[in-house]
Structures
1.
Amino acid sequence: MNAVLKLDIQDSFEVFQSMAHKQLDESLEKLRPLFEQDKPPTLLEISSALQEIKHELSGALLQEAAHSLNQQQRDQEFFPCPHCGRLVKKRDASRKIETRHGESLLTRPYCYCRHCKESFCPMDEALELSPRKKQFDLQKLALKFLAKMPFEEAAQLFYESTGMSFSDHSLHDFFSSFAEDMSPAKGELGT
Ligand SMILES: [Zn+2]
C-alpha cells in the first residue's frame, strides 16, 4: 500500500470517527430525562429508552461510514458513462435506505448521460445497493421468515426482531417479485 493511499484511509477513518462521536453525543442527550427523574427508572424503562435511540444511532453510523469510505468518489466531479464512456458531470442526490441498523440517508453522485439517455450512480454500484429501499440484509431476513410462516405472522416477527416495519402487503409484493428481479445466479441472497 503506498503512503498517499494509507494517509487517505487514515483521514477518512478520522472523519468517520469524529462524525460518530458527534452522533453519539446527540443520541445520548435523549437519555438525559432518565437521569432527571425523581425516582430512578426501572431496567425496563432504561431498556425502552435505549431501544428508541438505537436505530437512530446505528443508522447514522452506517450512513457516516458509507460516506467516509467513499469520500473520494463523493468529491469527484465527472464519471465515465458505463455505456459509452463519455465523461458526465455529476450532481449530488440523496437516497433513503433501510438496513437492520435503521434508516440512513446517503448523499451520493448521480449522473445522467444525455447521449445514452441513461442515469447511473457509481456509489450505489460500489456499495452494491439494492434498488429497493430495504437493503439486502433485511431482504434476506424477510425471506427467512416468509419461508417458515404466513405473511401476517412474518411481518409481525420481522418488526419485533428488527424494529423495522415491513407490512404484510409489501412483504407479499416483495416475495412475488423476488423470483423476477433477483437472479439467484448473482448470489445476492445466497446465505
Ligand atoms: Zn453514455
Note: Residues 81, 83-84, 86, 113, 115-116 surround zinc ion (CB under 6 Å).
2.
Amino acid sequence: MAISIVLPDGKPLSLPDGATPLDAATAISPRLAEAVVVAKVDGKVQDLRVPLTDGAKLELFKPDSGPGRDTINHSAEHLLATAVLKLYPGAKVTMGPQTHDEEFYYDFDVAGRTLGPADLERIEQEIKKLIDAKVAFQRKQVSKPDALRFFDELGQNNEYKQEILSWIPEDDVSIYQCEGFVDLCRGPHLPHAGFIKALKLTGTSGVYWRADASKQSLQRVRGVAFPKKEELDFYNKRQEEAKKRDHRKLGKELELFIVSERYDDHDYREEQGLDLYVGVKADSPLDRKLVDFALSTTEASFPGVSIRQTVNFEKLPAATEDDKSPRPQLDVRLRGAATKEARKAFEQKLTDQKDAEVSLNFEPHYTEELGPGLVMWLPKGGRLRSIIEDQWRKMHFEAGYELVYSPHIAKADLWKVSGHWDFYREGMFSPMSVDGHDYCCKPMNCPFHILMVKSRIRSYREFPMRLAELGTVYRYELPGVMHGLMRVRGFTQDDAHLFCRPDQVAQEIDTVLKFILKMLRTFGFEQFEVNLSTRPAQYVGSLEEWGLAEQNLRDVLVRQGIEFSIDEGGGAFYGPKIDIKLVDALQRRWQCSTLQYDFNNPERFTMEYVNSEGAKERPIMLHRALLGSIERFIGVLIEHYAGALPAWLMPEQVRVVTVSDKHNDHARAVTQALMQKGVRVSFTPSSDKLGGKIRNAQIEKIPYVLVVGDREVEQNGASLRLRDGTDKGFLALAELTQTLVDGCSVPVVT
Ligand SMILES: [Zn+2]
Ligand SMILES: [Zn+2]
C-alpha cells in the first residue's frame, strides 16, 4: 500500500505506507534528507521520524529556519539537562520554557547549591562532548504510569516531574531520551545533536518553582545555540554592543530617568544614627558570606548602627564551601552621620575583600522607599517624553481620535464587572480600603473608555468612536524581574479603544494598521515582524464572530501586502489579534503594537447602540496600542539609537559654544534667532576651553554644535559641527537657520 502526501508547491508525492518526513526528504533528494531537521505536517511541527498519514501536507525545515532554530534551542535544553545530571549527582531536573525564544534555559534543583561561572564552564564542556558525539534524541509514546516507572529506573523521578505530569490531561504522554536523560516533552527534537554548530551558556540566576517565592528556589541556566558557527560570533559582538547601548546606563549618563530594580523586603523606620542598606542584585548568584562580612564590618566600624538588608536571605539559596564563582555585586549604602575617617576606614575594609565587587554609597537616594519598577522622569527625560507624547497626540487628532483621561484608581466593583478581579488579580496591586470599599490601581484603561461610551444612549450615526488615552497603569511584577524601563510596575500605555458597527470594522482595522506603521516609521523603525493570533482552546464569543474577525484581520494584512505569520491558537480568550514587533539596530525584536478584538467586555458591560432601524445592537470593540508602553518604548529608542536620538526627539537639539567671552553677544543673537524658529537651542557662557565644550556636547549626544569665534561674528553666522564629528564649516545665519530647522523637523511619513 502507498500513501500520497502534498508538498508545499502543491505537488503530490507517493510514498510507501508508514513513511516518515525523513523518507519523504530522501525521496526528493538524499542531500535534502541530510540537511533537514524538523517538519511541519498539516501546519504542526513534529519530528522527522513520526509516520505520515495519507493526504498530509508536508513542509521540511533546515536548521536556520524559524522552526529549525526553535528545535535547536529546545534540543540544547535537553543537552543541558543531560550534562547537569551527569555532573551533579542528585540534581533534580524541573522544566524549561514553554516557547523557545532566542535563548534557551532549564531550571534545576541542585540541593541549595548556587551555580557560578566555573560551573557554567564545566557544563558547557560536557554539552560540547554530547554535540561532538552527535547524540540522538529518541521519542517514545507511553502511558503516564509507564513514564513514571521509566523516570524511576533512571533515578530521575522527582516531585517536580510528578507535578508536571498531573497537569497533563491525556492518558498517554510523549517522552524523549537523550543519553542518560529522559524528559516529558512534546518535542520536536533534532535527529541528533550534531546539527548544533555553536553553543554558549550565558548565565545563571536564582528563580523559584513556578515563579512563586514561597516555593523551592531553583537555579536557572541560560544559553544560546546556533546552526552556524559565525552566528555565535555575531551574537557575542551584539552582546558587547548591547552592553554599550544599555538604556539604564545611558539613561543615567544623559540624566533622563530614575528607576529602581531593587527588591526591598523591609519597611521604613525612622531612626537616629546610621542606616545601612546591603543590596544585592536579586538575580545574581548570592553569597551569604559576603553579605555577612559587610554586616559585621559595619557593626565593628560603627558600633550601635542600625542595619537593614534589602535581601531576604531565608528565600535565597545558601552559599557552599567549594563555590568558586566570583562574588556578586554588593551595593552598600550608609545613611546618617559618620566621621570622614570612619567612612574611609570602612570603605577600605570592604574593598579589601578581594572577591567582592563592592560599591559604596554614603548618600541616601531613598529609592528603596519609592519601590522598584516605578519610574521618575528627570527634566531631560521629561522633555523627551513630552516631545514623544506631543507628536503622538498630534497624529491621533489628525487620525480622528478623541483624547480622554481616566483616573488611576477605581472601585474593585468595576474590575469585578470587567472580569479582571476574577481572572487577572495576580497581575494587580493589592486593593486599598476607602470608605469601607475596596479600590484598585488600574491595570488597564478599557473599562473607563467603555463607561465613557455608555455615558448616554448612542446612535449608529456616532460610530466609529475612537477614544485614546496615555493611561498610566499599574501591574504587579515579581520582585527580581524588574529591568530598567523595559519591565516596570507602573507604565503608560498609548491606549485607544475603537467602538464601531459591524459594517465599519473592516475599514477601521485597515486604517488602524496603516496608522500603526506610520507611527513606528516616524520614530525611524523600518523593519517589523507581524503575527496574527487566532482562537485559543478557551474562548468567549461565538465561532461565527471569531471566524469573521480572523478573516477581517487576515484580509487587511494581505491587502496591505504585509508579511505575517500565524500563531494558531495564540489569541487572547476574548478575541483574535495582530501583534507587531519592531526590529531594532541589533536585530532584536520588541513587541510594541497590538490590535485586538474584544468579544468579552461589550458583553460584560452590556454595551448597546441604536441602529438605523431603531433596534438595539452590540457594538464591536477593538483595543489597540501603537508604542505599547511609553516607558518601554523610550528604552527601546535609547538602545536602538545608542542614545543619539534623531534631532527631532532630542531635548536639546543645538548647542552654541564660543571661542572666548567676547563672542557671547553674537552667540546670544544666534540662539535667539533659532529659538524663534522653534529650534530647541541652548547657550550657557562658560570659561571652559572650546575643545572641552565641544566634547561635552558630544558626550551628551547633542545633534548640532555651533561654534562662534571672530569670523563667525564678523560674517554673521556660525560654524556647524555634527554629533558624529563632521565639520560642516561656516554658514551664514539665514542658511544656518534653514539647515537646522530642516534637520530638527519631524520626518514626514506617508
Ligand atoms: Zn523538551
Ligand atoms: Zn483595552
Note: DSSP finds 23 helices and 37 strands in the chain.
3.
Amino acid sequence: MAVKPKRTYKYGEQPIRITTVQVVAEQFGGAATANQVDDYLRGLFPHYKDDTRLNLIVNTVNCNRSYWSFNKTARRTDDVTHRHNQYDRLFKRGNTFEIYQPSMHGVWELYQDLQDKWCYRQVRSQFEEAVEAAAKLPPSERKQILEAESKTPELTVVTTRVYKRSPYVVAEVLLRANGKCQSCKHDAPFVKEDGTPFLEVHHIEWLSKGGEDSVENAIALCPNCHRQAHYGVLELVTVNKQD
Ligand SMILES: [Zn+2]
Ligand SMILES: [Zn+2]
C-alpha cells in the first residue's frame, strides 16, 4: 500500500494560520495584537516571513476575510459540524485579537449579499427571529395562540457574559456632555432622582462588534438617539477626543 507523502509546511508541522491562533491562545492567554504574535513567531522560526495579521484575520469572525476560498462558503459560527468551522476562532476588538467565544461575542455568519459579495454579520437572536415569524402569521392564527398561551411567563435561568465597562469612561463622557445629547444636541429629557441629567453612554463602535471601551469611542446620548443608534440608522462620529 502506498504511503501518503507527509505534507510539509513552511513553519512547523501545520499551516501557519493554525499556529497563529494557537499562539494567541497559549502564549498570550487568549488575547494579543498582531505585532505581539508576529514577534513571537519570528522568535520561534528563524526563517519566519509571513503576514501575521492576515493569518489572524483569516480566522476572525468579525472581519472581512472573504479573500480566502474556504471563507467563501455560507456558514454560521455555531454550526460546529461545518467543515470550515475551524477557521471561526478569533474576534477582533480594536487592535487585539481575542479567542472567539459565541456566548460572549454572539453568533456570526458569512453570507453572500445581493451583489454576490461575501460579507459577515452578527446573527439575530432566536427571540428576534421568533417575533418576526409571529408577525407573519395570519391574524386569526396569532389570536388563537395568544388565547391558548399561558399568561404567566416561564422563568428561565441564563448565564450572560457582559463586558466590564470602565466607570471612568462613563464619568468622563457624561461630564463632557454636560447635560446635552452629543448627537442631537438637545437637553437630556429629564433629571434623575439625584438631580443629574439622564443621558446614556454608548460605544460608537459597539463592544460586541469589537469596539474599544475608550473615551474616544464613547458618546453620551439621549434615550431616543441611543435607541436609534441601536435599531435605526444614526451616523455617529467621535466627539470626545482624548487629549
Ligand atoms: Zn439625542
Ligand atoms: Zn449603546
Note: The chain has a mean pLDDT of 92.
